[in-house]
Amino acid sequence: MNTDIMDLVEKTSIKAEPPQFEVGDTVDVHNKILEGNKERIQVFSGVVIAKSGRGSREMFTVRRIVAGEGVERKFPVHSPRIAKIDVKRSSVVRRAKLYFLRERVGKAVRLKERRTS
Question: Which residue has the higher pLDDT, 2 or 94?
């Protein structure tokens, strides 16, 4: 009964068509930023290294390298602040979490591209 109530409440905040992407994909996350009374869109590009949660609590982590330093950011999938998610490249991965990329630098960070026909 408790989960039925939670599912009913969560249905109002879930997007009708959530973006389709997987762990290992290189994505561009278009994030809405409020600055005063203006709103702009900032793009965060990187590799999806983890997905977690379900329903309205579903999150994903994107990692990218900025000025030689690794930067990770977690986004909620169903957030109204996310304008869109573009999948730039899909990679072949054999794990659900790609935390091993944190220790790698340079060319060792590259993932094998998934071919689609």
Answer: 94
Amino acid 38 reads K
pLDDT tens, 13-62?
888 888 899 999 999 999 999 999 999 999 999 999 999 998 888 999 99
pLDDT score for 10: 78
Give the position of tokens 């990187």.
46
CA distances from 35 to 45, 49, 52, 57, 82 (A): 21, 29, 29, 26, 16
Whole-angstrom Cα distance, residue 71 to residue 65?
A: 6
Contact 59, 52 (CB under 8 A): yes
Structure tokens at 76: 């909620």
- The tokens describing 95, both together, are 């794990």
Helix ranges (DSSP H) in the chain: 2-10
How many other C-beta atoms lie within 10 A of the C-beta of residue 40? Answer: 9
